[in-house]
TrEMBL record:
Pfam families: Aminotran_1_2
PANTHER family found in the cross-reference section: AMINOTRANSFERASE, KYNURENINE_ALPHA-AMINOADIPATE AMINOTRANSFERASE, MITOCHONDRIAL
Protein name: PLP-dependent aminotransferase family protein
Residue ranges annotated for the Aminotransferase class I/classII large domain, each copy included: 45-391
Gene source species: Rahnella laticis
Transferase listed as a keyword: yes
Phylogenetic lineage: Bacteria, Pseudomonadati, Pseudomonadota, Gammaproteobacteria, Enterobacterales
Cofactor(s) the protein requires to work: pyridoxal 5'-phosphate
Keywords, in A-Z order: Aminotransferase, Pyridoxal phosphate, Transferase
A Gene Ontology molecular function term of the record: transaminase activity
Superkingdom classification of source: Bacteria
Amino acid sequence: MNTEGLLAARMVRLKSSAIRELLKHSKMEGVISLAGGIPSSALFDFDGLRQATQQAITEQPEHAFQYGLTEGSYTLRERIAELCQERGVVAKPDDIVVTAGSQQALDLVMRAVVNPDDIFVVERPTYLAALQTLELAEANILSVGTDGDGMIVDELAELLKTRKIKGVYLVPTFGNPSGVTLSRARREQLVQLAAKHEFLIVEDDPYGELRFTDERQPTLFELSKALFGHADNIIYTSTFSKILAPGLRLGWVIMPDWLLHKVAIIKQAADLHASALSQSIAECYLGLGRLPAQIETIRAAYKKKCQILAELLERELGDVLTFEYPKGGMFLWARFREPRNCAEWMKKTLEQGVVFVPGEFFYADNPDHSTFRLSFATATEEQMHEAVARLKRAL
Ligand code: PMP
């Protein structure tokens, strides 16, 4: 049978995640991976998760195993609202939809707001799987540069002089892959531009809680409310993946009224609602009151790992690489001082037994081939020493 033409045209544009392909290498014996964007399972609170699971299936089985509301369990949304309040994101349970990870939130939101060829602006570099949701929604993706203070909002302002855009997607705090955080001044500038030019901001915040210092930037959601008394054009999404367990596949999205009900309809079409069992477990876990201590544990561990990796890189490869010290999150973004194709270089590092993600995969356009992303979340201290020695050998 000739199957040509059976696939939708938009699928031709869609790239598979090169990172997922790469992760196959990271499973090879003896290979040290600094590639994956996965949290360290050595830090998971298995005791707490076991208790919460036990409680969910014995105390509320009719809730855990039955269909539920599309927007998500009301009790869980109440608890999420409390969590968000501590981050300065003040929302009611009715402003929240629980999703299958924040990844699904991105997909649902993009489908709800993007018409084919609408312009969506992303950072250069940006989160690869957000690009996939934009491609699926058939957006016209444009990008603006990023430096040590996050997205260069002046570049966006320049672009707005000639183009009408639908929205901006960004990870403003401890970005993936850049590791950097948008400065306070640029946050205000961005929120003001969004109000003036009436575009959406999709604020993706999976890493905001994983900070290594006491410094905390306000969310764009919070700033918009402070400046304009509303967040009618801000969509805030976050997740339990990096603070609790990604296998639960639970995230959430806070949206204005005009959008929330439309997103809920798309969610109905996609999967009716997020897993009731996962929601019950998360609900019980939050009820145990263990999350704050768990977040502290993760922060302390990642902070230490980040410091070790940064110091090793500085000492061993500082003459050929530059990078910003991350103040939180899971990633360190490095650039060769002299141009080098990191995808090519990785063939050599693989021979030495170490993988990372070449930076070029994180660009919507104009990739910088001299960049690469290292994750410090999963490797042990010993592995990091060995990994940096192997990187050096592969040069
Ligand atoms: N956004 C960003 C920036 C991420 O790094 C990730 C996970 N790698 C996600 C969203 C999706 O995470 P999840 O679906 O597990 O919540």
